[in-house]
Amino acid sequence: MNWWSSERRIPVSNCYWIVAIVFLLAAPSAFAARIGDLSETTVLEQAARFFTFQDPAVRMALIGCILLGICCGLLGTFIVVRQFALVGDTLAHAVLPGIALGYLWSLEKAPLPLFIGAVAAGIIGAVVVSLIRQTTKTKRDSALGIVLGGFYGVGILLISIIQERYPRDVAGLKSFLFGSAAALNESDVWMIGIITVVSVVILVLFYGQFKVVSFDGVYARSIGISAQFFHYLLMLLLAWAVVAALQAVGVVLVSAMLIIPAATAYLLTDRLHWMLLLSTCFGILVAAVGAFLSFLGPNLPTGPFIVLTASAVFLLVFAFAPRHGLVSRWWRRLKQTRQITRENSLKAIYHLQEAGGFAEEWITIEKLSEQRHRSAEETQQEVTSLVKHGLVLRDGNRLQFSPTGKSRAAEIVRNHRLWELYLTDRANIAPDHVHDDAEKIEHILGEETIRRMEESLNLPAVDPHGSQIPQVKKEVTS
Question: What is the Cα Rg of the chain in Å?
Fold first, then answer.
């Protein structure tokens, strides 16, 4: 298998954001020191101020959030496709004791001790989950819930002890619970940037292996890929991403940044490389918009705005996605229902003509209404639809097929009668029990399926009830 396919280069497209990040870093310093720290300004003035990128707190928060969107978007894709959504939440809560211990190490919010403590706690949490699953009958979701609650409780206890003993310095530590992008400093952004770059490089180098392990671990082992190794490597990357996200969105909301952008992308594509790209773009978008919205008011939290923006984007895609959106599915069902109604009307006209030996091409709307068991108003609506789609020709109160309508009517009747014959001949179903099933499937049988059925039945001429099966002639174009 070629692990160096072109698909691996997709995540590298994130490097385009480096230009924007460099621009933000190069912008001159001015204004207040904290994001959203208003004096006497309107919302429009504050929005204009944001886009100057002259506030150092804005630059730090925006750069950190964009890097966070890239990292969480990429790693969240593998969480979603592997159905590990609860893993991100578990790791987010599991790193809290490590954060507290890292804080005790230096008694300040230094990035390196916090990072080491958080990653160590995250890895221990992942190992504990595996041990619980391997040594007991506990299911994965239960094991994750146990670790989530246990580690989070230990973390809260440690923070409470620290708050009791060092009340003057604990404010910076508490920001990890609920997030505070405004508190990001240059060292925090550098740490997030390093974590993001390392994660992207590892995913690019081992994209093929991660892909195979995510979709088929048994096949991965059969071709010599260590599924367990790449599972723990992914857990390590997730622990890094969680640490990177904690300062901006907090323990409570970090799992949303890992899951929502990837889940949104999942509604738009079934190709992993496109899902990675879309998830990253959504992650960047919601992070930037969340930072912007939190800047518009005094002391507005960045984390909740990021998550609310991600949720809003997900709801929009959930409603309007081309394939899986609610509106799109409703529209397809509506179109299908209308198409079936038209085809049933065509079939009814065919049966009326067939009953008269095809001597008369014109039939009255009243006869169609009786055949369809519809009211006059409903029949008029159906006739209007048939005329609009060029399936029938109308002359006052009379109807006849157009060439297109006649061909489609013959196809529907042929599909119905062939399916009835197939069920009675191949499935040994009584002829009086096949009509309802044929009524449903006659509208969706493809031409290739019909051709195979005709060949398997030796090109039959009549159905189980003795009715003639229409022979549909297709125009051949050179």
Answer: 32
The token duo for 281 is: 């773009």
Please give the Cα distance from 22 to 220 (Å, whole number): 40
Full set of structural domains in the chain with CATH:
6-321 (1.10.3470.10), 328-401 (1.10.10.10), 406-456 (1.10.60.10)
For residue 237, is pLDDT > 60?
yes
Q: What percent of the chain has pLDDT over 90?
A: 25
- A 10 A CB-CB count for 103 gives 24
Q: Residue 358 burial (CB < 10 Å; 0-12/13-18/19+)?
A: exposed
Q: Flag the least confident range among 28-37, 160-169, 400-409.
A: 28-37
Q: Which long-range contacts (CB under 8 A, 24 or more apart) does 265-271 make?
A: 265/73, 265/77, 266/80, 266/81, 267/314, 267/317, 267/318, 267/321, 267/323, 267/324, 267/325, 268/317, 268/321, 268/322, 268/323, 268/324
pTM for the structure as a whole: 0.73
User: Are 345 and 296 within 8 A, CB to CB?
Assistant: no
